[in-house]
Design a protein that fits this description.
elongated, 142 residues, mainly alpha, binds protoporphyrin IX containing FE, single chain
């Protein structure tokens, strides 16, 4: 079980590294002057590769978590409200990942309407999600 949990944590950390960095590229993309086509294309290529890699990391992160939950039964039964709350916040993290994909599609179609200030606030969301998830799973407050 400890090997599964170890790799769960490794992939979770890697997944969130992608969720931290991808919106940062979007902030830069939103500030690229319209005439700088080469720079825009370079940032879009970086975003596409990073989104693909981040998605590849999310799959084992979630699968190993489900293995701990369903396979070993950790977080099931009485006194497991922390796990239900954790899963609810994990669904938000998956939704955030999806929103990054939608934003990239808009940038690729040159239809982005979000300015760099909005994107900077958007970039803070995964920090909040990570703090809440880690407190729920380590402290198990309820
Ligand atoms: C489908 C989603 C997930 C499921 C079912 C899941 C399930 C679990 C379970 C059952 C444990 C073992 C808890 C224990 O031994 O006390 C665990 C550990 C952990 N999970 Fe997840 N997890 C998921 C996603 C995540 C995500 C997205 C994060 C972070 C962003 C995360 C962070 C952690 C951490 C840090 C631990 C180690 C806690 C400890 O050893 O005290 N998990 N997870």
């Amino acid at each position: 079980m400890l090997w599964v949990k170890s790799f769960h944590i490794v992939f979770v950390v890697s997944w969130f590294a992608g969720l931290f960095y991808l919106p940062r590229i979007f902030v830069n993309l939103a500030m690229v002057p319209p005439q700088s086509i080469a720079e825009r294309e370079r940032l879009i290529l970086m975003s596409r590769k990073l989104l693909r890699f981040t998605t590849l990391l999310a799959v084992p992160a979630l699968a190993l978590g489900l293995w701990l939950y369903l396979g070993y039964g950790i977080g099931r039964g009485p006194g497991s409200s922390w796990m239900h709350a954790k899963l609810a916040v994990v669904v938000l993290a998956i939704g955030y990942h999806h929103a990054c994909g939608r934003l990239l599609a808009k940038f690729m179609a040159n239809h982005n309407t979000r300015n760099h200030v909005w994107l900077r606030w958007f970039n803070e969301v995964p920090v909040l999600l990570l703090v809440v998830i880690v407190i729920l799973v380590v402290v198990k407050p309820f």
